[in-house]
Amino acid sequence: MSFKVAVVTGSNKGIGFSIVKGLCKRFDGVVYLTSRDDSRGKAAVAQLNALGLSPHYHQLDVVDRASVLRFRDHIKEKYGGINILVNNAAIANSAEWYNSYDENKNIVEINYKSILTIQELLYPLIRNGGRILNISSDCGHLSNIKNKYWIDRLSNKNLTLNDINEFVEWFLEQSKNGNLSKDDIADNATFAAYRVAKVAISALTMLQQKELDGRNICVNSMHPGLVRTDMTLGAGFYSADEAAETPLYLVLEAPATLKGSYVWYDKRILDWYDYNADYYFKTDTLRK
């Protein structure tokens, strides 16, 4: 008998933790809480155990290839596959509006490049008819990008992985040389690395959907809303449990026809390509 399996990356706190909590209550199968840090992960499991919930735990550092391989082998050996995967692991730079090159590089590594490793190593385990959700952000809508050249390349319907990677490398190069113009990115290029990484994930979602279409796997990205978590330094308009509702809907209840979409926190499907829209993140929202 094969068990259904759900996995949430970076889920020892915040939205990831709340998604695990919801899956433990509503998903008919095994739910994995994963975290980079073992002790924090186990403490989070203990919290859920106290609520009468029983997630499984495994260490998973999404930027450490060896860690992803260990996790893959564990799942493969024990269950043979994954039904639901929520790519939630992320870091933000909430405290500073502008960051050093090293910080920008780190943000891009964790928020975007890690997904490429996950895609390579874990996506082959996703069962036919499975669901993948990439947690993006309002920072991940194309309207965050103001540079005409990159808008044109990213909105091309024949977008390739090379286009996305070159966009990310262009940003890192500009950041390294101190040449990034505040006109290239919305809101005077505040939180630039986070915006670039999340735009890259939203674009990548559509490529992943094309690749997995033949196996009837749904891949979507979403903006969970501004949630009061450590990552936003407590700024936000709703709690992590409230923010988990739309992700849970997308992996458990949404119609199987919802594919390759960019979804807002209130379940609306937005046109990701509408670069003139007013969906980009504004630093004003962090002012209390």
From TrEMBL:
* One GO MF term attached to the UniProt entry: carbonyl reductase (NADPH) activity
Q: Gene3D superfamilies given for it?
A: NAD(P)-binding Rossmann-like Domain (3.40.50.720)
Keywords of this protein's UniProt record, alphabetized? NADP, Oxidoreductase
For the keyword NADP, the answer is yes
Q: Identify this protein by name.
A: Carbonyl reductase [NADPH] 1
Query: In which family does this protein belong, per the annotation?
Result: Belongs to the short-chain dehydrogenases/reductases (SDR) family.
Indicate yes or no for the key word Transcription.
no
Looking up InterPro entries in the UniProt record yields: NAD(P)-bd_dom_sf, SDR_fam
Q: Which SUPFAM superfamilies does this UniProt record tie to the protein?
A: NAD(P)-binding Rossmann-fold domains (SSF51735)
Q: Tell me the lineage of the source organism.
A: Eukaryota, Metazoa, Ecdysozoa, Arthropoda, Hexapoda
Give the species this sequence originates from.
Answer: Papilio xuthus (Asian swallowtail butterfly)
